């Protein structure tokens, strides 16, 4: 198993990419700290892992709240004895808009959840990763952090910042054994994207961007990339952006 003996924190793990990653990490031998603000769905992720013979525990954590992050990370360390992997997956994915039509509070919420949350989780996890002899930090960015979309200023700004945060961590902590990378998914079949099922313009754009004969990727395909970046197989991979986008960024 590729993650045997590793302890991994995965944020936003109640659904979509986070849920698929938690299940796959556990299948590969990791002990998984499942975190989210949706307690029932987060616990359901844990229940599925345990039913398959894996090890996991749920923590309620709003990653935009400093004290909740500090408490969760310390409790994971105390409970499992180490932290080896942090997967920053939690994000705020609603209320897209241009700069002028974006409410100030919505902007703050998008940045605080998608970017500041990853900063806080990384900040308080890094000492434990160093203590464990090094480890891997992974963040779910987006193709929208590499190329922009019209009417998505808060989202694209947060995701671009997330990519640079990972590069900064890689530069600052590489000599202490910490690798930091981003994954840039394209259109993925997650609950959040269900809102576009009747939007013909969005559907047509997904079709145009895909080079693999289907418009949507599966959460498990992103999870597989995260497993690679969490594992020792990627020991010479850091400060990079791994696109799981069906060719989106090439079109």
Architecture overview:
The protein has 251 residues and is an alpha/beta fold. Helices cover 44% and strands 15% of the residues. The protein is built from seven helices and seven strands. It has helices at residues 16-27, 39-51, 66-80, 104-131, 153-173, 200-209, 219-230, and strands spanning 7-10, 31-36, 55-60, 85-88, 135-140, 178-185, 241-244. The chain has a seven-stranded parallel beta sheet with strand order 3-2-1-4-5-6-7, sandwiched between helices. Helix 2 (39-51) links the parallel strand 2 and strand 3 (55-60). Helix 1 crosses helix 7. The N and C termini lie far apart (36 Å). The mean pLDDT is 95.
Helix percent band: 40-55%
Task: Sketch the major β-sheet.
Answer: 7 strands, parallel
Q: List SSEs in N-to-C order.
A: EHEHEHEHEHEHHE
In what order do the strands lie side by side in the largest sheet? 3-2-1-4-5-6-7
Radius of gyration: 17 Å
Shape: globular
Termini separation (Å)?
36 Å
Percent in strands? 15-25%
Low-pLDDT runs: none
What would you call the structural class? alpha/beta
How many beta-strand elements?
7
Count helical runs: 7
Overall mean pLDDT stands at 95
Strand and helix layout:
Layout lengths: L6 E4 L5 H12 L3 E6 L2 H13 L3 E6 L5 H15 L4 E4 L15 H28 L3 E6 L12 H21 L4 E8 L14 H10 L9 H12 L10 E4 L7
Parallel strand pairs: 1-2, 1-4, 2-3, 4-5, 5-6, 6-7
Helix pairs in contact: 1-2, 1-7, 3-4, 4-5
């Amino acid at each position: 198993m590729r993650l045997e003996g590793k302890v991994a924190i995965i944020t936003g793990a109640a659904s979509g990419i986070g849920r698929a990653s938690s299940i796959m990490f556990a299948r590969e031998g990791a002990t998984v700290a499942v975190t989210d603000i949706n307690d029932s769905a987060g616990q359901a992720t844990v229940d599925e892992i345990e039913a398959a013979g894996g090890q996991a525990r749920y923590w309620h954590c709003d990653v935009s709240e400093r004290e909740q992050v500090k408490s969760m990370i310390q409790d994971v360390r105390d409970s499992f004895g180490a932290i080896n992997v942090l997967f920053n997956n939690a994000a705020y994915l609603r209320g897209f808009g241009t700069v002028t039509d974006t409410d100030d509070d919505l902007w703050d919420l998008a940045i605080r959840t998608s970017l500041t949350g990853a900063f806080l989780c990384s900040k308080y996890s890094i000492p434990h990763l160093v203590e464990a002899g090094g480890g891997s930090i992974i963040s779910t960015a987006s193709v929208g952090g590499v190329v922009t979309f019209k009417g998505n200023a808060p989202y694209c700004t947060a995701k671009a910042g997330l990519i640079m945060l990972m590069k900064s961590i890689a530069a600052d902590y590489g000599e202490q054994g910490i690798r930091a990378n981003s994954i840039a998914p394209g259109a993925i079949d997650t609950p959040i994207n269900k809102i576009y099922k009747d939007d013909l313009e969005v559907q047509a754009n997904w079709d145009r961007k895909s080079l693999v004969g289907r418009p949507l990727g599966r959460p498990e395909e992103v999870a597989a990339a995260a497993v690679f970046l969490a594992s020792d197989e990627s020991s010479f991979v850091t400060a990079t952006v791994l696109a799981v986008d069906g060719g989106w960024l090439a079109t």
